[in-house]
Backbone:
């Protein structure tokens, strides 16, 4: 049997494992599901006859190499910085590799050797990055095949709570790594290009510069800019495009409310707060406010954030229990961002019967035969439950499908790569539709950012 080694059995691996097990009889597959926690690997394989759960410490080189040497192909579902040693072992033992992570400089450095060994190191084949690349390149390639010239490309994606589980004032719950949410937008100004002009948004104003989107059946959303929208300009072949923008989707009003944390300094991850372990939530909030002999923490917060008494922003803060003197942080040597993550997790953790939702939205502006048009492409995916979430489905299924296509010789281009070639995106996008990941495209007049010209 063909052995697929899956390293990492975390949340994103559930749909991946279920898909490959469903194909295991017809495709002659045996899955080796490896995790530091044997119990987690056993839970994900559910005693399936074509799966073997194993405990694997990836930092034990002998143990790791032994597992990789026996595999036909390797999938790494570990955090991105842990892929590189696995990739080097895959080179040594001549094994293909699939990951959902961004291509790091260290991974890219293996490209030449991978090509020499005719090995496919497929990366960025999850949701974002992944489905965003594939769905975008499909439309861009179709426009180019007709002789069209790209004028605008905007791409938005967000992990949200499904409407039936949306029951807090923030219209948000953590559906993926909470730390990434708290630190979003940090590390440099957001950069994009608009009507041929480079634009920059510093972190301090990022969440007050949003774009509104509407998805039929799901009402309105907003999006704030990703840090570097220009990263894929050359990869997508869009060096001459007038507008290129990538953003993160939230429900309308989230960004304005989140900006309160930014203003206070609660999202800062650069220093440790003294005696954080014994700090109450109220003390944490008060740490960022000026001293006043008579004003309460609540009054000081209202004043510094300029919140009126009837402003829903105040209710959003109250909902998070930020002023509770009895709740303790219980995190030693914690940064403000780590404490904020802890506080938000109290309110924003998905309940056992909650469902999550993925929303992706692309805009393509182009000129064809002298006429300007726009295609809007929208996808909404709702999770099944807490195991087979929309996030696990949209991250794990493309990984699984790419793995099978590589094993079956349908993807043949060697080297370190992302899924922008037709041999990758066409079959995967088609099969994803069977699992409810469907893009609805609508053509309309193109206005760009100069509607007065039309």
Residues:
């Amino acid at each position: 049997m063909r052995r697929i080694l899956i390293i990492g059995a975390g949340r994103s691996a559930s749909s991946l494992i279920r898909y490959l097990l469903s194909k295991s009889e017809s495709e002659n597959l045996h899955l080796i599901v490896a995790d530091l926690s044997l119990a987690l690997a056993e839970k994900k394989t559910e005693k399936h006859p074509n799966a073997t759960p194993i405990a694997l410490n990836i930092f034990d080189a002998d143990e790791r190499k032994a597992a990789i040497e026996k595999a036909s192909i390797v999938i790494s579902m570990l955090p991105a910085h842990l892929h590189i040693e696995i990739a080097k072992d895959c080179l040594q033992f001549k094994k293909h590799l699939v990951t959902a992570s961004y291509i790091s400089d260290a991974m890219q450095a293996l490209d030449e050797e991978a090509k020499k060994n005719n090995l496919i190191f497929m990366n960025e084949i999850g949701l974002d990055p992944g489905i965003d690349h594939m769905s975008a390149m499909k439309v861009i390639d179709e426009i180019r095949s007709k002789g069209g010239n790209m004028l605008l490309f905007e791409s938005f994606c967000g992990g949200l709570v499904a409407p039936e589980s949306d029951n807090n004032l923030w219209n948000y719950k953590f559906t993926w790594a909470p730390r990434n949410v708290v630190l979003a937008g940090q590390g440099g100004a957001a950069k994009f290009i608009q009507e041929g002009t480079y634009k920059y948004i510093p972190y301090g104003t990022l969440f007050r510069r949003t774009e509104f989107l509407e998805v039929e059946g799901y009402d309105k959303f907003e999006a704030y800019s990703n840090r570097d929208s220009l990263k894929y300009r050359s990869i997508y072949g869009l060096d001459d495009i007038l507008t290129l923008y990538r953003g993160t989707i939230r429900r309308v009003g989230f960004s304005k409310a989140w900006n309160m944390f930014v203003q206070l300094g609660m999202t800062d991850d650069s220093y440790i707060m003294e005696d954080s372990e014994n700090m109450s939530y109220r003390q944490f909030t008060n740490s960022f406010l000026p001293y006043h002999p008579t004003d309460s923490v609540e009054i000081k917060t209202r004043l510094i954030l300029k919140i009126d008494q009837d402003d829903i922003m105040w209710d959003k803060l109250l909902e998070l229990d930020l002023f509770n003197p009895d709740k303790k942080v219980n995190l030693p040597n914690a940064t403000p961002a780590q404490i904020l993550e802890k506080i938000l997790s109290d309110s924003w953790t998905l309940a056992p019967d909650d469902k999550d939702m993925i929303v992706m939205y692309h805009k393509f502006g182009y000129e064809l035969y002298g006429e300007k048009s726009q295609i809007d492409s929208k996808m909404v995916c709702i999770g099944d439950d807490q195991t087979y979430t929309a996030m696990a489905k949209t991250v794990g299924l493309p990984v699984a499908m790419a793995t099978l296509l590589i094993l079956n010789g349908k993807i043949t281009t060697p080297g370190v790569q992302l899924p922008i070639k037709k041999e990758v995106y066409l079959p995967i996008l088609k099969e994803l539709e069977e699992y409810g990941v469907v893009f609805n495209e609508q053509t309309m007049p193109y206005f760009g950012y100069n509607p007065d010209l039309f």
Remarks:
- The CA atoms of residues 158 and 249 lie 4 Å apart.
- The longest strand covers residues 149-161.
